[in-house]
Amino acid sequence: MPYFAYGSNLSRSQMEKRLGRVPPARAARLEGWRLAFNKRGRPVYANIVRHAGGAVWGVLYECTEAELAVMDRYEGVAGGHYRRIVVEVETEDGGRLAAITYEACPQSVTEEQPPPPEYAARILQGAAEHGLPEAWLKEVLRLCEASR
Question: Is the pTM of this model over 0.70?
Answer without folding.
Answer: yes
